[in-house]
Design goal:
By secondary structure, the protein is an alpha/beta fold. The chain is about 40% helix and about 20% strand. Among the domains are: about 220 residues, Rossmann fold; about 45 residues, no CATH class. It contains 14 helices and 12 strands. The strands form 2 sheets. The chain has an 8-stranded mixed beta sheet with strand order 6-7-8-3-9-10-12-11, with helices on both faces. The two termini are about 25 Å apart.
Amino acid sequence: MLEIKNLKTRFNIYDGVVKALEGVNLEVKEGEIFGIVGETGCGKSVTGYSLMQLLPRTAEVVAGEIILDGEEITGASDSRMRQIRGGKIGMIFQDPLSALNPVMKVKDQISEVIRQHQKEELENRTEKIDSGNERNPYILWSLIFVSLVSLFYFLKLEDSFTDTFAKLLFVGSLVGYVFLPEMKSESYSARTAVAEMDMVVESLRQVRLPNPSQVANSYPHELSGGMQQRVMIAMALAGRPRLLIADEPTTALDVTIQSQILDLLKKLQKETGMTILMITHDLGVVAEMCDRVAVMYAGTVVETGNVSEIFSNPKHPYTQGLLSALPGESKELSSIGGSVPDLLDPPSGCRFNPRCPIAKAHCSVDVPLLKGEDYKVACHEVKL
């Protein structure tokens, strides 16, 4: 469903050029939960923002391709990206309170997505509201007109009463339907608002929010952190996307709420069949949620494959270091020596080579490529 080829993203700052992404390659299959994991600053979120074209003005994609459902979107126009964002691709941001507009009610923010990406569904629902009320005013005015004319001729007691009454009944009905001003119980915009509100409430109910009508009429600051995150998910799903990017959706939440949000995402994925791209630094989230995972280091993908295989038998030295640093039965925690490289002046060759326990001389010269089929590793010293 999604293919990223040799993606390179740069940030132009006062001190120089930050090489944030250096040849990222990913393949995401339809209907799976694909994880991107790595430490802070490795390029996980930048990959998502590059995909959505939501980079700041100081950043640019200098090379690579992003292919979504067979469509190359790296150079897509602003108008096309507005159709894709919220439509084909939805996104849950890290901090819901900063991502939500603080001066707009929840219903207005979700309605904006519905108006942009669910126009046909909104019109269909509006028409259904129309059909129940549209004819009643015409019938009422026709009956009033015919009754008044009939009463007038009854009082005059015309000899040709029967013929005249029949003619007037027909003409009166015709005039009532055609020439009387159109009277509708609700304006079109009002009925559209009703249909929008129904769809907003359905979106909030889908993410298991209690009392969705009350939440819809609330401002973001009136909600708890967990409720804000659910509103963000509801907004992302309101456009019925085929791909959902979840950028560390549980970072600002306590452990109990984290579990609820992750369970919710798994249930929604099963119900809708959508694809989820899960961005996280938490290996526990990857183990719980994902089918396949890509491990990133310093703007590069170093290993990708099935979650079970990577956790049970990691091949890349960096992945091995990450997993060995997890708390376990041993009282001592191991660590990866050295420090994260400065992406203003990254190491030549393999970016992990200054910290790698198995690095050789050529590792500091030649850039390793991802090799393999379903399971891929970017390391000169690893044999698959």
